[in-house]
Amino acid sequence: MNSDFDFLHGTWDIDNRRLLKPLSGGDEWEEFPSVAVCHGFFDGAGVFDEITFPTKGFKGVSIRTFDVRRELWAIYWINSETGVLHNPVFGRFADGKGVFHGDETHEGTPVRMRYTWSEITPTSALWEQAFSADGEKTWETNWTMRHTRRA
After folding, report:
1. With DSSP H G I counted as helix, E B as strand and the rest as coil, what are the percentages for the chain, rounded to 5?
2. Residue 7: phi, psi to the nearest 5?
């Protein structure tokens, strides 16, 4: 089927860096650990992971599905704090980098959201989230997750 997210299968230690007040002009970041366990399904056309944030007291789940007809990935996020399925982001991989876009709100403000997967190796990967509140003229990265594969 599709193998774009096969690199993610397994267990990962993650160094998170998250902007405390996105879209406020602030530059104060918090850093915290997490652990993710990822499994594939649908012969590569689906990926599920659960992320535990031990110092934050919540967990999250990502579900990724591949639309074979459109050749497009959809990524959905749910966290245990709210149990709400967030709006998906859609995109694909090209030249070793995955870029995904979707519409969301942040504290009542409509934003364009972007996820980027890059720096992918057998033992590491980088995920970044960014918001645009001005129609994609400018982007503010507000969360990065540096993944290191557990042995």
Report:
1. 5, 65, 35
2. -60, -25
